[in-house]
Amino acid sequence: MVNSSNYTFKNVLLETGFEYDGDEVVHTKTELFCVEVAGDKIKSVMPNDLNKNAIDAKGWLMLPAFKDMHAHLDKNLYGLPWQAVSDTRKTVKDQIAYEQKMIPEWLKTSVERTGKLIDFLQSNGTHFIRSHFNIDPTSGFDSLKHLEIVLENKKKTIGAELVAFPQHGVFYTDTAPLLKEVAKMNIDFIGGVDPYSIDGSIEKTMDLITQLALDNNKGIDIHLHEVGVTGNKTIEFLINKAKENPALRGKTFVSHAFTLGHLSDLETERMAANLAEAGVGIVSSVPFGNTVMPIPLLRKHGVEVLIGNDNIQDHWNTFGPGHMLQKARLIASLYGYTSEWALSRTLGFATRYQLPLDDKGNQQWPKAGNDASLVFLEASCSAEAVARVSPVKSLVHQGNVVF
């Protein structure tokens, strides 16, 4: 890992514009450059100089490093022997009972395994992670403590924000006192899960979560798997709270929000407009099958839609890829984003909307002063990177070359 405070890359492939055939974008223009890094920022972007004493980027495409906006770093089976998901646990409460049994055993090796999982995510170009951590009577504060140890050990190579996640319910188990304590700690969001089906009340649970967020200057990011009336009411509750409390605007998210994939077109339009007005975002792992999320419509209304891997290898799901480009490719294939222009826009789901070119093809990244968090890929342009899930060759986090 390079920790020098000032260095330069040469032979860096950057996108410079679009090539058109009439009104259609048919190609992405690129050129080779030198990119100078100072500290954690990009200092300058200069014409390429083959003779310059610099790190050779070998013509690899440089893009903004990826952000995984929904993960569970504390709760995974990565690093343990292979284990597929069990068909015997069919409900969230089934999983809660299983976790209560297994968490004490998992905690024994969680520091080592979480480190390996972060290494895996980094190998696929991710430099920033929003991670939920269990807060419940079985875990106590240990999930958070172990996660903090790993993040401190890797603070030069990974960024993170943390969500206190009462996976076992706020009141279904005696988690409310723990949630009140953890809200005072150095975390970023207060979480929750299916308040009606787990705790039996939307209002009681959500009132506590929102008040803790307001009192402690935290955001909100709740898991909501419920569909139908209770799912809709929970989202509407958060919309109303965000409208009443401007401090929550832009800091309130609903993860999964599967109910949005089961509404009529008219209902979805109304909900999307209300989410946008309140500044409430949606975080999706891009499910498919019976639930295809209305991501294009949400984006049309200006709703912030964040994407994450969620389960990578755990007892909830077998198939998480741990690769944000694969998530972007899944979005492109699900919603028909197949053109050069559309594929280049889809990259934004992996980078939290930081893109080399704006919608008209004007170069907007990288610029002097930008955060030096970079990923280098064996690709000719971002459209190809998304469509082909191009190999990641190098990662830089805030000026530190990870590999």
Q: Any overview of this molecule?
A:
Residues 175-403 form the Amidohydrolase domain. The chain is built from 13 helices and 16 strands. The chain has 403 residues and is α/β, with parallel strands linked by helices. It folds into 2 domains: 6-59 and 356-401, Roll (Urease, subunit C, domain 1), CATH 2.30.40; 67-322, Alpha-Beta Barrel (TIM Barrel). Strands 6-7-8-9-10-11-12-13 form an 8-stranded parallel sheet. α6 runs parallel beside α7, α10 packs across α13 and α11 crosses α13 (382-388). The longest helix has 16 residues, at 92-107. The radius of gyration is 22 Å and the shape is globular. The mean pLDDT is 95.
Offer a few descriptive terms.
about 400 residues, eight-stranded parallel sheet, 13 helices, TIM Barrel, Urease, subunit C, domain 1, alpha/beta, four-stranded mixed sheet, globular
Topology:
Blueprint: E1 6-21, E2 24-38, E3 41-47, E4 55-56, E5 61-64, E6 66-71, H1 92-107, H2 110-123, E7 126-134, H3 142-153, E8 159-165, H4 176-182, E9 189-193, H5 195-199, H6 202-215, E10 219-224, H7 229-244, E11 252-256, H8 265-278, E12 280-284, H9 295-300, E13 305-307, H10 324-335, H11 340-346, H12 348-351, E14 374-377, H13 382-388, E15 392-397, E16 400-401
Helix pairs in contact: 2-3, 6-7, 7-8, 10-13, 11-13
GO molecular function, one term: hydrolase activity, acting on carbon-nitrogen (but not peptide) bonds, in cyclic amidines
Pfam families: Amidohydro_3 (PF07969)
Protein name: Deaminase
